Amino acid sequence: MDDIGQNLSRGTNQSGGRIYNERLVLSIVRHRDGLPKAEIAKLTGLSAQTISVIMQQLEADHLIVKGEPQRGKVGQPRVPFSLNPDGSFSIGLKIGRHRSELALMDFVGQIRETRQISYPYPTTTELLSFVEKTTPTLIETLEPQNRDRLVGIGIATPFELWSWGDELGAPRDIMKAWLGFDIKHEVSHASRLPAFIQNDATAACAAELTFGNFQQYDNYLYIYIGYFIGGGIVLNGSVFEGPTGNAGVLGPMPLRSQSSQSQQLLHNTSKISLQRMIINRGGNAEIIWSNQSDWSELGNVLDEWIEALSEDLAYAIVSAISIIDFPAIVLDGDIPDSVRRLICHAVQQKLEQIDQQGLSPVTICEGSLGRDARVLGGASLPLLANFTRNRDVAFGG
User: Fold this and answer.
1) Beta carbons within 8 Å of 326's beta carbon, 6+ residues apart
2) Which residues contact 208 (CB under 8 A, 6 or more apart)?
3) 180 and 289 share a domain?
4) Are residues 110 and 28 part of one domain?
5) How many CA atoms lie within 13 Å of 189's alpha carbon, on the beta-carbon side?
């Protein structure tokens, strides 16, 4: 397990480094809440005087707050510092294949307000109408003095939405409207806010790194089970996007099936495959698209899905760790916590049945954000762009 605090970069005492140093301090305070100035100075390598100046400025900007002094047996009392939840705000837009959501998020990653719409398939006109009408209502929930601290809107969306029309049962002309549709520009215009955009699974990965990751891994493969399966890669404490922003996409990974025919990883490991199994048994799949947290009524079909999913995921994980020696796999999804726990256990069991000679050991961990991961990931993009160092940023801004 890596210690995030040990991997944070050092500050610079050169002129022109003020913004970098401020963002470095904010990153440390976010990951190591409650540190006093002396420990922040030690972690950054900056002088006590420089840290004092930075902390005073961040306090004046309402980005950090002092805690109550903690008196020890000797020496001066320790004054802990934390991020100010009201220091900044952002809006996240998650575009889904059956549901879109807007969320107002504060500086520490707490969702203050949410709004959502459901549909049989996404349309550009309905999405823009939702953003234009709903964004002002979210902003109005803020205290008047906090509204100018809203820094933008972040969009978490599946890439190439137009190519999934057949799976959604959507008319081709409706889905074709997404081809050439500039989501970032149009959402920025509709919301009247600066916009940032990222693949939804990569955005979820960034949210886990920023607001979750309680075991503090600096390197891991992130897997998100949604309509389709997706993921992201974290290397040295940063989300690695790849040259096209598609690193860790996972779904198209080829696997050899029992019939010796090649099939993609997403075939058995996505919610759409569970829906297909439910419908083939004459059941109602509506439960897996609702916010209901109890899937026990699915019975055997859920067990069979987890069995097929865990076997395919185990082989995909072994393939991944044979290329990059990830110490951990973080598994999350738009699924109930209890189901996520079952999947993690099943994947661990399947891994133990696969020959891993020559590979480093890997730990299967549960993600911490669940259904909120993608919208949190979207909302995190403006905050990452405005308040973190470049190495922490995962956004298409």
Assistant:
1) 219, 220, 221, 320, 362
2) 222, 330, 332, 367, 368, 369, 373
3) no
4) no
5) 8
Does residue 170 register a pLDDT over 80? Answer: no
DSSP SS3 for 229: strand
Map tokens 């305070």 to a residue. 29
Q: What is the pLDDT of residues 59-102, one digit of tens each?
A: 999 999 998 887 765 666 788 999 999 999 999 999 988 889 99
Instruction: Report which residue type is found at 235.
Output: L
For CA atoms 289, 239, 182, 383, give the dihedral sign.
positive
328 and 380 part of one domain: no
Say which range, 87-91, 174-178, 297-301, has the weakest mean pLDDT: 174-178
Task: Tell whether 12 and 55 lie within a shared domain.
Answer: yes
Q: Which residue bears the tokens 């005087």? A: 49
CB under 8 Å to 306, separation ≥6 — which residues?
A: 339, 342, 343, 346
Least confident of 78-92, 132-146, 286-300, 333-347: 286-300
Give the whole-angstrom CA distance, residue 347 versus residue 310. 5
**Which range among 87-96, 123-132, 152-161, 386-395 shows the weakest confidence by mean pLDDT?**
386-395
Cα 354 from Cα 335, distance rounded (Å): 26
Q: Do residues 239 and 347 both lie within one domain?
A: yes
Supply the CATH number for residue 141's domain.
Answer: 3.30.420.40
Cα torsion angle, 234, 179, 125, 385, sign: positive
Structure-block tokens of residue 242: 């790849």
Q: Which amino acid is residue 113, in one-letter code?
A: E
What are 182's two structure tokens?
A: 């500039």
Judge whether 57 lies within some domain. yes
pLDDT of the residue at 260: 58
